[in-house]
């Protein structure tokens, strides 16, 4: 249903779909229409023009009614096109799945056979098949299906190879499922969308190929005809009576165009990445559509965010991922940004340098200043000169951010050379020093290794070295230690802490781990459903949380030596950011909720010694009262 809605939203696909339905309905009801017999000749009225002698679309060189032949011919062309597409899809997909799943010799054998078929130009191959089998519609169908099998086989094999070693397939093998069951129930459902997409975009092509064979006299045989053979006959009188070729030519154009438009729509609707805009060409910097002028910063720091608002516009839905977020960091300071998954931490961080993919991302308000320079809406040249140079990022998974085919040293050298016009030799020396700074042993030899040759911890150190390459003023670290084990995590944290002190780096550290915040951060901000709900010094947040969300989030964390404490999970889930409720977004999960929590804007206001977005904060504890 959702897929149909998505197709209908695409105007071109909708138009294609409607036209195709009309043509198919017309073809289906052709026997019921009061038409002349398609093969009845009328020698007295040969090549009649449109409307002449009672022939709406004229007559051909034997005086046969073109309208009647057109509709009967359309039936044949559509049927042959669809049937050959189904045969090619089924046979090709079966070969592809078996080759991709079995691998090894079977794969090699099947794919080399497919390669051999692909080695011939397809029309030559189709001609050869028809020549061997003899002319006729059935044989044309077999030929068209056969030449299209390789296209499906190769596509589906590629997808199956990717799936065959996925964890869920391994799990099915471990559960003792037979190969046939794994193929039918684990692999097939995952490749069906690819088969449908491939078929929908090639059906039009197959109709054209069948028409091509008939045009050459190898498909439908007289007196029957399809659109191709109608065109073939019309070509003989192309100079004297060109109008005879218009109806079949136009019908082929209409059918193929409508199928292709619909096919593109089906492909877009079935691919979830296309649906969310992830595969559309992202812009070099996030689109900025401010509703009001950039606000003046209320705090000062080397990086100051004021009322940042970032949304994702997907179709008619608006996902308010980040709302009125204000943050600042001073040189040498570390700010922790904490929150559950999906609370908007990464989108906030990426908004700073215009790195949120557009479409679908749009920054709809706010300001981000690096020193005195406004970054939101800055031209691309300026953003590029600052990205990685003055403001650098460290991401969670270095394997995803390091290029797998280049040595880590080359990637570091490139990062340095992008911003500094120094020679390769000097850049290499600097890269080795950077690797030493991040405590990689044997930096001189490690510089020539590939990312996959390093352990997770080492790779993350390279990620940090990349971020440090140009001696930035600010580092935004997005969960850089989440994928690492605790020992390596501790080493990376102490490394960042040392670098902060020795280089005066300002760090925004995104995490959902309070332990990390305690160890590294001076101040902390807690995010929930795209907003900052509490901010203060690390001590204030950790020892005296005032927002019920922060307090409950901390109650979920086990503490060493506190074995008897009950771990309280927070009931419910955060609200979807495209359907944020009025008032406090945490109200539905909050144990202190009251009627006034559910209406109006709740400001981030001073509560005790720090700030929280709450009308009924948690009681302050003795330590804060004493301060
Ligand atoms: N392309 C997109 N289309 C629609 N919504 C999106 C898109 N990308 C992110 N979002 C939404 O934006 C919100 C914020 O996501 P974000 O990645 O910033 O969360 P996070 O707090 O960093 O989570 P995590 O800890 O899992 O990285 C989420 O609700 C997410 O669903």
Automatic annotation (TrEMBL):
**Can you give the residue ranges of the ABC transporter domain?**
303-554
Q: Has keyword Nucleotide-binding? A: yes
Q: What is one term from the GO cellular component aspect held by the record?
A: plasma membrane
Domain of life according to the entry: Bacteria
Q: Which residues cross the membrane?
A: 12-33, 78-102
Give all residue intervals belonging to the ABC transmembrane type-1 domain: 74-263
Q: Which InterPro entries match?
A: AAA+_ATPase, ABC_Ni/Peptide_Import, ABC_transporter-like_ATP-bd, ABC_transporter-like_CS, MetI-like, MetI-like_sf, Oligopep_ABC_C, OppC_N
Which terms are listed as keywords in the entry?
ATP-binding, Cell membrane, Membrane, Nucleotide-binding, Transmembrane, Transmembrane helix, Transport
Annotated membrane topology:
Peripheral membrane protein; Multi-pass membrane protein
Q: Which GO terms describe its biological process?
A: peptide transport; transmembrane transport
Please list the GO terms describing molecular function. Answer: ATP binding; ATP hydrolysis activity
Q: Where in the cell is it found?
A: Cell inner membrane; Cell membrane
SUPFAM superfamilies named among the record's database cross-references: MetI-like, P-loop containing nucleoside triphosphate hydrolases
Main subcellular localisation: membrane
- Give the family, as the similarity comment puts it: Belongs to the binding-protein-dependent transport system permease family.
Q: Which NCBIfam families match?
A: oligo_HPY (TIGR01727)
Alphabetized PANTHER family for the sequence: DIPEPTIDE TRANSPORT ATP-BINDING PROTEIN DPPD, OLIGOPEPTIDE TRANSPORT ATP-BINDING PROTEIN APPD
Return the protein name. Dipeptide/oligopeptide/nickel ABC transporter permease/ATP-binding protein
